[in-house]
Amino acid sequence: MSRAAPEPRKTLDPDRVAEWLATHPDFFVGREGLLQQLKVPHPEARGATSLLERLVHDLRTRAEQAEWRLEQLLESARHNEAQYRRTRELVLALVEAQDRDALGQALATQLAEHFATPAVALWCPASLSDAEPHPPQAPRQVLDEHAGSRLAALLDGRTSRCTRLTPTDWKRLLPHASAPRRSGSCAITRLSLGEPLGYLVLASPDPDHFRASMDTLFTEYVGDVVARLLMRLGPGHA
Q1: pTM for the complete prediction?
Q2: What are the pLDDT digits (tens) for 97-122?
Q3: 123 - beta bridge partners?
Q4: Across all residues in the chain, what is the average pLDDT?
Q5: Residue ending a domain, choose from 72, 96, 120
Q6: By the 8 A CB rule, do 197 and 189 touch?
Q7: Are residues 82 and 159 in the same domain?
Q8: What is the mean pLDDT of residues 143-162?
Q9: Distance CA 211, CA 7 (A)
Q10: Burial degree of 2 (CB within 10 A; 0-12, 13-18, 19+)
Q11: DSSP of 46-69, one letter per residue?
């Protein structure tokens, strides 16, 4: 008589096992020895390790990731606080200016010392300077047709923009500042308060200092403050 063929070995579906264990989290209670026998792939080397060792490794990894994220948040908070303090000092210095020339000089000094911006130009129409006893002092410049056309072209229809600045444009738009041999970069914003008041140009000889992808919110904010102070600090201001 021939023997019957052995029945194929039955195996459990891994997904069903995982689902069952997920719905019975107390399965290993009283079966701690089984936990010690379980082996799982080692996350950093070939071979296997115990389930407990793997859990310790995973918990340590999660703790390190949480610590890194916390450090990133703290670093961001420190940066934001420093940025707030620098901006506060800038605005206070501008508010304390006694006239428009002092306003421009305070602007240039603060931006150079606290915001790594070595060159600034404040272009204002002649109507803001006609009644003044002396010609504007750098970084203030009288806005003429040629400069206005070039600044409008660089803005390309926008209120503010970061862009490259060729040596030729640098010499024309920042005549009081030494021009770099190669292209620099700048942030430009239009000044207005019910009427056009000119342009504010922040420039650096570093072509990547003001990148086209950068946000211009800070430049616009400074421009808004400067526009209001230009109107307040008229020729008859005491």
Answers
A1: 0.71
A2: 999 999 999 999 999 999 999 999 99
A3: 141, 199
A4: 87
A5: 96
A6: no
A7: no
A8: 95
A9: 72
A10: exposed
A11: SSEEEHHHHHHHHHHHHHHHHHHH
